[in-house]
Amino acid sequence: MNIKPLVVKSYLESLTEENELNRIFPILLSSLKFEILSKPTYNKGLPEYGKDIVAVGFENGIKKRFYYELKGGGDRNITTTNLHKKDGIIESIREAKYKKFATDYPNFEKLPLKIVIVHNGILKGSAREVFDGFIKSEFEFENIDFERFDIERLTSEFSDHLFGAFLLTNQENTKLFNKVLINLNTSEHVSFDYIKLVDNLFSKEWKGYKSKLPRQWVLLFETLKLIAFIIYTEAKEYNNLDICKRYIASLVIKFWFWILKNKLERDRKVINYFNQVFFFYISVLGEYFRRTLPIAKIFNGLSSEKSGRYEQIGYTKRTFEYLQYLCFYIDVEMELDEKFDAESAKSILTMVINNNSVSSRPLIDINSIPIIEIVNIYLRLNDKLSASNYLKSVFSYLKNGKKKYNRMPDANNSYESMIRFTVTGKKSAYYSETTSPLLSTLLEYTVILDLETLYLDIRDFVTEYNIDLGLFTPHHGVNSNSKHLIENTNLDLEEQLFSIPDFSDGYQRAIDVSENLEFKKFKKNLIEIKEEYQYEYRTDLAGFSPLRNLAHIYFKIPFFPDKWRGKLIE
Amino acid sequence: MSDVLIDKYNSNDQSVLSDILTIYDKNKIECLELLEKLEIKNIKDAERCFDLINSLDFLNLEVANLQASVLIQFLTNQISTDSLVEKSTNNLQELIRNGSDEIVEQVFQKVRYSLRNKDGLKYSLLISYISRTENFEIIKDFFYDFNNPVYIFDLMIKLYSVTPTYRFNLDLFSNGISRAWQIKPESTEELTLNLFTGDSTFAILAVKVLFVNSLNPISIDLLKLKNKTHQLNAIKAICKFPHSFDKLLPTLIVLRRSRFKDVVGQLQTELSKKVYETYHDTIYKKIKNSITKTKKDIKFLEPIKEALDDYHKLKTFKESINDLNPFENEKTLIDLYYRLEREENVRMMNTERTGTIASLFKKIVIVRGNSIKYNNSPPTKMAKIESSLLIDLESYRNPDLYEHKLNIIE
């Protein structure tokens, strides 16, 4: 049985919101190498255009201009009602036909015109007679082509030119994709099937190109967009954007890894496609935060009303994870959005932190990621006071946790171990608490923020409980004298960062505060090693520096020391 | 020979006392044995005997034991003057402070079992004994024959003051206090109420006292507190208490009849807070059922009903999306948590643990063979629910902060 068209059809039928069709249809056009001059997002709600998509492309060897009228959502079936209603089928077709489209595309008006009505439903029998009559009277004697894409036609177009051309070319990928979609909400992780699927797609060897991107790669990139979009649509179906938040993050990271590995980060054509996937992800995150921030900003907002005693761990976990993505989002906006509003970003961040008391209660060491991000964002927005207060609060939780409950954040970063400890009072063999990278980071921040008292508190605490301080430092730094120890020589630092969850090509930098080391002396020592690890990231040169944060978040790799040491002032 | 002497003295021939006392130099033990059996008839004789044994023996167990017996005789003898009682008490204190370990144990056991109806004396000796031995376990059954609960409360307050936190272990006092409730309910109630009148740290202790030996709190009449601040203290402490708020409610709710407007207002505020933040419908229903249908009570309920409505709005709002829903996005961890908890419940023994505050309540429950039910908890999690314990949800959200707040003085 040929399963493909069925999958495609049921997917297309599932697009029940109007803008969903609007977002996916251009992907088909660009895979057909049409040049899109105007997309629905640009002119929705501006009826004077009267056309959703304007594109130029070839049909049967003839270059034409195409006006697409998209009818999705409640209007996806053509019925007697929506034929006649305001902004309905008839009105839209008339407007497409009569209203001019302003563009500086050369000779646009001279190209033959084709108007296409696209709807992911059917033409109902009762409406057929009127519709056919209307079309006949409007187009019979005109030099304008007309065509209607219904669900069947859309299915075959998408199967042939998009899914079929790449995604569902073989049985394995078809199966994987089916499994991904079916199991989308069954686990809190990104499924192995999905990872396998994306790996399969990228498995073809890149051989470069001369002037135009080879078609198979164009199709691959379009397919990636489509996958992202399908996952997003499905996640919405589950009313759970957390799903697409993880799945698309995984896709972005894999895509960027592939770019780094093939040294394409300066290739504008490839980057153009990456941008589309990346900004789609950012727009999904934007939607996620628009949905969730009103909740997160309420007192105890991120806590669940029904998961009971599990909240001892769950609420804290949820809060830190929320905060790290919020910081990532703020970073991206700060970096890439010209209209970035620093004050409002700061107030949102502060509200989430203040209303969720567990935001300074680290349970596992990798909670250092949101902690560092929060402090860095405050510092970038010139709010040293909030940065210091937050840091102090984190330390007081750490200290209280150790003193009262004999609990240190697990250096092996396992919430499972923390749950086990909370429930049974016993620490599993995997629970590691004698070394604390998080505390090491906090100590270095006391120098950046000039907090001598906090330094002394941490120092004495570390001494009292005999905690080892150490920071993970990659061997790859420009001033490194341990490059010979690099084990994975196939991949450079960033390629590893974007592909290897247990990144370990580095050393543990011991930090010593023994013998009541004075603040001044500690500061001096730290400034001496300030440049021990520095690195010029290709990702940053390409203008995507926040992406590195996403990789750290996604793979739970602690930030490297250059994340904060650059802020040290002598 | 010796029995003859005793008989003679006891049948009013007090001249033999000199004979008995002269034995002391030759044979201390024999002499003391005789004295132990004498029913001393007058204070003069008693003083003579006391003087003889004034030099206490801190090393010889037998001698010290007999000395203690004689001293105890003085304490219980009708003819003893205050001064003799004082001197004898001091001597017993000396034995307990300075005797060898063995002497201390034996003398104190004697005090414990032979000294009847002398609560104050026994109590002061207990204090000496504890400071010498640090054997706190003795407290557990020490008060079994006390008639006045004031002493056990005094000791409890003393120990609590050392570390005035919720974690203070009442086990040592539970037998004595339970008994006090049985035999002297009025003065015990008064003593408990008194805890609300001092420093507010003691208010939490007061609530703990209500739960002594049982998961069903003893009810007291908070309207007997005459002072506004004290009533407010009681409201705060009961609302702060981490569990069984439903069972404390009947005690608390009478304060709606307080003559202080502020108290009634505070009660409404705190109950609204409980309904909104923690116990929702469960407590709202309970409140509603605990009050009458009078105009005044209906008015009292109004802000609390509003809080409930607000909570439902909040809940609907929070649950309108699944993006933050742990049952969708943290399933594996939730399953792990409850699976381990079930295992632990089966295995758990009455052992001290250093877990979070929530694990403390669990201990109470398990020791008594119950299960925990949280009003909104997933229904499948507990296999068998025989009786339920309502626990403050807040203690699960941020246990560290919760316990910290529980112990701070406002």
Structural summary, described in words:
- The complex is a heterodimer of chains A (570) and B (410).
- Chain A has 570 residues and is an alpha/beta fold.
- Helix content of chain A is 55%, strand content 8%.
- In chain A, the strands form two sheets. A five-stranded mixed β-sheet of chain A has the order 1-2-3-4-5, with helices on both faces. Chain A has a two-stranded antiparallel sheet with strand order 6-7.
- In chain A, helix 6 links the parallel strand 4 and strand 5 (144-149).
- In chain A, helix 8 runs antiparallel to helix 9.
- Residues 42-48 of chain A have low confidence and may be disordered.
- Chain B is mainly alpha-helical and 410 residues long.
- Among the domains of chain B are: 1-134; 331-407, no CATH class.
- Chain B is 67% helix and 0% strand.
- Chain B has helices spanning 2-10, 16-26, 28-37, 43-52, 61-76, 82-98, 101-114, 119-133, 139-142, 150-162, 171-183, 185-195, 201-210, 228-240, 245-253, 261-290, 295-318, 326-329, 331-347, 357-367, 394-397, 399-407.
- Chain B is elongated and about 95 Å long.
- Chains A and B meet through helix 11, helix 12, helix 13, helix 16 and helix 17 of A and helix 17, helix 18, helix 19 and helix 22 of B.
Keywords:
heterodimer, A: 570 residues, alpha/beta, Restriction Endonuclease, 3 domains, two-stranded antiparallel sheet, 24 helices, elongated, B: 410 residues, mainly alpha, 22 helices, 0% strand
Instruction: Tell me the Rg of chain A in angstroms.
Output: 28 Å
Would you identify the regions of chain B where 5 or more consecutive residues have pLDDT less than 50? 349-353, 362-387
Structural class of chain A: alpha/beta
Mean pLDDT of chain A: 89
Could you tell me which chain pair has the largest interface and how many residues each side has? A-B, 53 and 47 residues
Termini separation of chain B: 72 Å
Number of helices of chain B: 22
Structural class of chain B: mainly alpha
Shape of chain B: elongated
Helix segment count of chain A? 24
How many angstroms separate the termini of chain A?
71 Å
Beta percentage of chain A is: 5-15%
Proportion of residues in helical segments of chain A: 55-70%
Mean pLDDT of chain B: 84
